[in-house]
Amino acid sequence: MRGHTKIWPVLLALLVALSLEVAPLPASVDILRPPWMALTLIFWSMRQPGRFGVGVAWTMGLVLDVLTGSVLGQHALMLALSTYLTITFYQRLRVFPIWQQTLAVTGIISLYTLIGFWIDGMTSDLDGGVLRLMPIVSVLIVWPPLYWISDRLITPLMRD
Amino acid sequence: MFLLGIVSILLMFLDHRENHLESVRHGLSVVVYPIRLAVDAPSRALSWGAESLSSRSRLLEENRRLREERLQFLARLQRMEALQAENGRLRALLDSAPRLADRVLVANILSVDLDPFQHRFVIDKGGSDDVYVGQAMLDAGGIVGQVTRVEPFTSEAILISDPGHATPVEVNRNGLRSIAVGVGDSSRVNLPFLPNNADIEVGDLLVSSGLGGAFPSGYPVARVVEVERIPGEPFANITAQPTGALNREREVLLVWNQPAVQQSDPAGELTEPGAEPPAAEPQVTGSADGGSQ
Asked: Among B3, B7, B221, B274, fewest CB within 10 Å belongs to which?
């Protein structure tokens, strides 16, 4: 974690997250798509809070805005806020047992989704209603395996 | 964090209200382009594989079918030539400008999912192919949507079924004009501005009226599937099914409308595709109806 660690696993993870955000899914599963980018950023800012700041999250948010065609700044704000919360609580998040950690991450993602909901409501015709909150449910399911796999995968990678 | 929050809110305001950030978006879209291509690659490879692995008999069958279709279309085209000449003569008699032939270009839809609650998608033609905002898109069945944002190599488009989109249409049978509004379901659109006594029936074909200047006139848009007249309500509840394959198509046709019409008609410059037509059209519908009474 300290000193000189490799950057490419981080970049790769971000690229994969960006692709997953727009990867084609059947319409019935599409509303359940977890916010991959937010999860990735939460994971990394939890691991390396000093290096992984709000600035990186904000920049990735801008890229995501262009990629998904939302209002410029929407995802930037959402991601910056969720990363900020993670960095504030990272010491507690890291030692939580997995179920507690999942709940905490779900809390952060709820805020993320609700802000997105708000901004969408202000800038466009809203459609979907409560279904828009489905990503929160999918985070509950996705986070434990995602964390487990990334942890096993990335720890040896980063150690060199 | 506070600073970034304020900056993002400022950005959103500038982008949404003022459209000042096109250059920023253009720059970033070049960065994003490879990601879009990469995401699109698997489905492209799959369709390519299906094509190259399909059996000889199936290809022959398809070839035979296409040949038959081509013959039919050619026969229809012969009649069309004569009709076009006649139309030209009649228009000359009426002293109205002849219609220009529409220029078209085939664009591929990238299989990139945007917001699941909006009917938008990305096509692989952009500013480098002279695509412009508000450009109409067709498929084999009729109008499917229009371009909402042009980037250097790709463009974003909105389907006519998006809840924020309205298409100026007229009933092909009698020329009754109205607006087809998307409802967020790709199998239907609504016609909310027709009064109960309007002359419209199930099965009527709705074609684009060309009002507003965004869509070329005379292309099929939808077919009426349900007309519900509630006696107490001022407007009938009319549902139509789009004739184009809105959610199944991989390719769309981009149409260049006559530029002269575009410039003379300020309503053609749609910045917010859904916002303007409904405001302008109900009066037209009302007057058309008043005339028929």
From this structure: B3
